[in-house]
Design a protein that fits this description.
- The protein is an alpha+beta fold.
- The chain is built from 26 helices and 16 strands.
- The protein folds into four domains: 204 residues, no CATH class; 143 residues, Galactose-binding domain-like (Jelly Rolls); 102 residues, no CATH class; 225 residues, no CATH class.
- The strands form five sheets. Strands 2, 3, 4, 6, 9 and 11 form a six-stranded antiparallel β-sheet that branches. It has a four-stranded antiparallel β-sheet with strand order 5-10-7-8, with no helix packed on it. Strands 1-12 form a two-stranded antiparallel ribbon.
- A hairpin with a 4-residue loop joins strand 7 and strand 8.
- The radius of gyration is 31 Å and the shape is flat.
- The N terminus is likely disordered.
- It comes from Gimesia alba.
- This is DUF1592 domain-containing protein.
- InterPro entries: DUF1585 (IPR011478), DUF1587 (IPR013036), DUF1588 (IPR013039), DUF1592 (IPR013042), DUF1595 (IPR013043).
């Protein structure tokens, strides 16, 4: 049978399962009629509404993680078949809401396509003794770079040596030097590869660490960034292992990210150009002429071009490149672990139906997250048997069984079973809810065994398992899934900063700064969980999580390297807690100026779970400064509040946003207004920032630090909203009045155990709402 025919059989079987399990069809003929009816209406989207509100499908993240843990099959970010599934709808900030996670015919087909690709990756049908593409190591020596003589001799930014290439600016590529041969590309198949660069650096007169970037030009992808600290007389090898795919890439380029920009002479000349403009704006042409003369004497023939004849490169930073190599594709084992998981007893060349039955007797309970009966196993075996009867190899027949399993509602759906009117979850349902709360994946063997013995719900054991799971690496899903959605991390960079107003964003070494802002927010939550810190640290702390680039952006010394780590903050730093993060402030800006109202709404929604209602459609934005005026955003917002119908909403919002005005549109600290226009001096000087205010309860603050202190003194205003957010995420539904007692119990448990994030999670798991339908 051809693949598309098997896929059609799988789809029919899928529809059959849905009809029988969700709609209670009583006979085979009734099932067939339902299936045929669904096929006849393929031009109409017919949403499958579940008869019970506590039924939902797996989210895309949960689906991917469940497949990963079930088959030990890893998906790379740029080569993940589940990414073809549509994004999950978001309600009240989270994508787990059962009311939105339903299935329709189009989505069923998407799941079928994903299942086919997953099965193809999980099971090897070629030679089991060796991979189809062997691992190879290919190296390109930079002294062999195919440059014309003039490209080195007439360019002051490159020196070709006998043992490599020295860059003072720009980049060098491998061209086609990393191809396996003329027929094969550099990346023959998708997989994991290791890239190594042997390099060294001279910091030059600026005493600035050299930043090296490995770039894949054909697809516009940064593969690696690292600071090169090795001196010129002792080069070192810098490497990274990452997933790559064959998309039109036959070369790698190494970029000296923060090398001297010969198009602008250097940073000193940039500053001098700015000084010339300021002198002219201030009506001092004599000073402007003096600065221009100085620049000409130093080798600048225009405002942005150096004169090669007079410009000295002796003291410029240098990056030495010896060679670059790529090794791969890399295999942890062969055949892959997923294949060995399926064919646990070895020999995949048999046509033994009994072996297939053993395979699915092992897989189905884990896939369905509960014990299965013989009839459920036989449903899959019937599909496998039919494939074998039609002459398909055993591996292909088992593949079709896997596809059928992945398309089953028992795999796709989380459906609580109301046992004899009981409101409590049974142990298997409890294990499922716990694992999808903390891991966004299926229960592991330990949880499954405790559920089988009926002991998981015992308070002592449940608490012990919760703590075990919080210590497991899979709990990072709580960061990448819950925290990412709670803090709206993916929306931080929705507006690109205006680089003319905020030139720090134009610096080449800051090209990935937005990634760092997001990484700080997620890394902070990760450290809160791992370090068992007080929940109050979400509001204020004497530490944060930084790498070198973000530390430099915050003007914090002593942080080296790209890796994020916990960093103690100076006593006078405004950073610390979520409110001190540039990402927090970027969300409430438009890339041009700050938006205090947006920031206030964000704070109320995210931290206090008290999102204000949407404004009327005809209200409009805070206006820019009219000609001749020099008003701060705060002053213009005060005028905006005079519009009829605006004052009531702004009374609740504005104080929370105006308290953050010392942070500009990119999250850097400021004492005077910036953004919007390039030259505030021409308008008489930028107005000072006034970050004072009064909260709706009458509490007053004079600046940002007092505002943070006020929030910390009202910590209970944050703890319960955080509990509500976690409950809504864990239960996958909107909270109701019946949940109030459980929320209060979880908060009380946290207060009795150090008021930490882990203690709050423990209280949630122990609650009645978490353990009930």
């Amino acid at each position: 049978m051809q693949r598309f025919e098997r896929a059609f059989v799988s789809r029919i079987f899928l529809c059959t399962l849905f009809c029988s399990s969700l709609f209670g069809c009583e006979s085979e003929s009734q099932i067939e009629r339902t299936v045929l009816a669904s096929q006849a209406t393929k031009n109409r989207t017919a949403e499958i509404s579940h008869p019970k509100s506590n039924v939902r499908r797996l989210t895309r993240t949960e689906y991917r993680n469940t497949v990963r843990d079930l088959l030990h099959l890893k998906f790379e970010e740029n080569d993940d078949p589940t990414q073809a599934l549509p994004p999950d709808p978001v309600i009240d900030g989270f994508d787990k809401r059962a009311a939105a996670l339903m299935l329709d015919g189009a989505l069923l087909n998407e799941y079928l396509q994903a299942a086919i690709e997953i099965a193809d990756r999980a099971i090897v049908t070629s030679d089991l003794t060796q991979p189809p593409v062997p691992t190879e190591r290919l190296r390109f020596e930079f002294e062999d770079i195919p440059l014309h003589p003039y490209e080195v001799t007439t360019r002051p930014w490159a020196e070709l040596k006998e043992n490599g290439l020295v860059l003072m600016s720009g980049s060098a590529g491998s061209k086609r030097g990393l191809r396996r041969n003329q027929r094969e590309p550099m990346i023959p198949i998708s997989g994991r590869y290791t890239i190594r660069v042997r390099a060294a650096a001279d910091r030059g007169v600026r005493d600035e660490r050299a930043l090296l970037r490995v770039w894949r030009p054909e697809v516009g992808q940064t593969l690696h960034e690292t600071y090169v600290d090795a001196p010129l007389d002792a080069p070192q090898t810098y490497e990274i292992t990452l997933p790559l795919n064959p998309e039109g890439a036959d070369s790698l380029v190494v970029i000296f990210v923060n090398g001297t920009n010969f198009g602008q002479a250097n940073l000193l000349h940039m500053e001098m150009n700015a000084a010339v403009e300021q002198a002219l704006a201030a009506g001092n042409p004599r000073r402007a002429a003096q600065l221009r003369a100085q620049m000409r004497a130093e080798g600048v023939i225009a405002t942005s071009r150096p004169n090669p004849a007079t410009l000295s490169t002796a003291e410029l930073p240098r990056l030495f490149l010896d060679w670059i190599e790529i090794e791969g594709p890399l295999y942890e084992t062969w055949p892959p672990r997923s294949h060995q998981t399926v064919f646990f007893a070895g020999d995949a060349g048999t046509n033994d139906v009994a072996y297939a039955r053993q395979i699915f007797r092992r897989l189905l309970p884990k896939a369905y997250r509960r014990p299965v009966n013989d009839a459920e196993i036989e449903e899959i075996i019937q599909v496998v048997t039919k494939e074998l009867e039609e002459g398909e190899p055993f591996t292909e027949a088992v593949k079709t069984g896997l596809i059928t399993m992945f398309c089953s509602p028992h795999f796709l759906l989380i459906a609580d079973q109301l046992d004899q009117g009981s409101e409590r979850l049974n142990d298997f349902e409890l294990a499922e809810r716990l694992s999808y709360f903390l891991w966004s994946s299926q229960p592991d063997n330990k949880l499954f065994e405790l559920a089988r013995t009926g002991t998981l719900r015992e308070p002592r054991i449940l608490l012990s398992q919760t703590r075990r799971m919080l210590d497991d690496v899979k709990v990072d899903a709580l960061t990448t899934d819950f925290a990412c959605q709670w803090l709206k991390v993916d929306e931080v960079d929705r507006f690109a900063p205006d680089v003319e107003l905020y030139p720090v964003y134009a610096r080449p070494e800051n090209a990935r700064l937005d990634d760092d802002l997001q990484a700080e927010m997620l890394g902070y939550f990760r450290e809160m969980l791992r370090g068992n810190h007080s929940i109050a640290h979400f509001l204020d702390s004497d530490w944060t999580v930084l790498n070198e680039r973000l530390a430099r952006f915050y003007q914090i010394d002593g942080v080296s390297g790209n890796a994020f780590r916990k960093v103690a903050l100076p006593s006078d730093s405004p950073r610390g807690g979520l409110l001190g993060m540039a990402g927090f402030h970027r969300w409430g800006s438009d890339g041009n100026r700050t938006k205090p109202v947006h920031r206030g709404v964000y704070l109320l929604d995210v931290l206090l779970n008290d999102r204000p209602p949407l404004p009327p459609l005809d209200v409009g934005e805070v206006e820019p400064n009219p000609p001749g005026e020099n008003l701060s955003v705060r002053d213009r917002l005060a005028a905006h509040r005079q519009i009829p119908g605006c004052a009531e909403c702004h009374q609740k919002i504005d104080a929370y946003g105006l308290a953050l005005e010392n942070f500009n549109a990119i999250g850097q600290w400021r004492d005077t207004q910036d953004g919007e226009i390039r030259n505030w001096a021409a308008r008489g000087g930028a107005p000072p920032i006034d970050a004072s205010g009064e909260l709706p309860d009458g509490s007053k603050y004079k600046d940002f630090r007092e505002f943070k202190q006020l929030l910390c003194e009202q910590e209970e205003r944050f703890v319960q909203p955080l509990a509500e957010k976690l409950f809504a995420y864990a239960l996958a539904r909107r909270l109701e009045s019946r949940d109030t007692r459980s929320i209060q119990a979880a908060v009380k448990h946290a207060e009795q155990h150090g008021r930490t994030l882990r203690a709050l999670i423990e209280g949630i798991v122990q609650s009645e709402a978490f353990q009930s339908h």
